[in-house]
Amino acid sequence: NAGVTQTPKFQVLKTGQSMTLQCAQDMNHNSMYWYRQDPGMGLRLIYYSASEGTTDKGEVPNGYNVSRLNKREFSLRLESAAPSQTSVYFCASSAQGADYGYTFGSGTRLTVV
Amino acid sequence: EDQVTQSPEALRLQEGESSSLNCSYTVSGLRGLFWYRQDPGKGPEFLFTLYSAGEEKEKERLKATLTKKESFLHITAPKPEDSATYLCAVYGGNEKLTFGTGTRLTIIP
Fold first, then answer.
1. In chain B, what residues touch A92 (CB-CB under 8 Å)?
2. Strand ranges (DSSP E) for A1-113?
C-alpha cells in the first residue's frame, strides 16, 4: 500500500545514546516533515524538507539533525538522547506544501531513560 | 505566530447524539484549515481542507464549516467507530502547518 513508512515503531534509549529514525514515502511527494507529539502539546514541527536537497528548522529543532537522502527518504537523528526527547515521532509528506494535506506515517514511540 | 485552540479537550456522547467540536484560530494569511482524525497508536488521517469563510465540506457523518475565526466539526448521529481524537490545523503565510491539541471523542454504544 502506498504511504509513509517509519522505522522502528518502538525504541528505548539510554541518556546519551544516539539513534536515527527512518522515514520513506512512495507517493512521489516533494515535501517531507518530522513532528513530535506530546500529551497536551499537540504536534510540533521539528524539521522539514520542502524538496530534495533542502532542509529547514521547524518549531523545536534543538537536539535533532535531519538528512534528506533522496526524494523518498528523510531521516531524523538524535545525536545524544535526553529524557526530554521521550515522545512519539511522526513523519509526514505532501505533494505541494500543505494545500493538499499531509500523509502521516504510523509513528515511532521513543522512550529515553 | 499562528495559534490553534480546540475545545472541548474531551467529549463523551451516546451513540446517535449529535454534537460539534470547535477549532479557534489566529493565523497570518490563512491558506487552509485542515481537520485530521487520529486513532490510538496511529498517525493522523486527513479528513478535510477548508480554504475560505463560508465553505463547508462533508464526509459521511462529519461536516466541517469555516468562519474567519473558527471552524466547527459537526458530527451527526455518531457511531462507536467515530471514536478518535480529532485534530485541527492551519496553514498560513509562514508556510507551516500549526496543529491544535485535539479533541478526544468517545461514542458510547
1. 43
2. 4-7, 10-13, 19-25, 31-38, 42-49, 56-57, 64-68, 74-78, 87-94, 103-104, 108-112
